[in-house]
Design a protein that fits this description.
Blueprint lengths: L7 H31 L8 H53 L1
Helix pairs in contact: 1-2
């Protein structure tokens, strides 16, 4: 069995990378949503426009939802890494005290 080496400080540092991805993903989703809203109803209100919208709208919503989901997932990953690091450190501190 191999040796387990855990660096809680490095884990906190690495978690920030996931947090940054989360933030950027949310910013991209927000920017995209706002930019598309500025375009208005460019598809028009005729039969062709309504058909376009019936395909466009779900695709755009799906893309924005995916970006938002990536952001949420990365934030949960960041939080999970921090929690794991903190619990490892706490466990290690307790074990050290028990040995004394």
């Amino acid at each position: 069995m191999g040796t387990l080496s855990v660096d809680p400080t490095q884990m906190h540092t690495d978690a920030e990378g996931f947090n940054l991805i989360s933030t950027k993903s949310g910013e991209i989703a927000s920017y995209l949503r706002n930019a598309l809203d500025l375009l208005g109803s460019f598809w028009g209100n005729d039969a062709v426009g309504r058909e376009f919208l019936s395909q466009w709208d779900p695709a755009v919503r799906g893309m924005i939802d995916a970006l938002t989901g990536i952001g949420d997932g990365m934030l949960k990953t960041s939080n999970g890494i921090i929690t794991s690091a903190d619990l490892y450190k706490k466990s290690n501190d307790i074990n050290t005290e028990l040995v004394r």
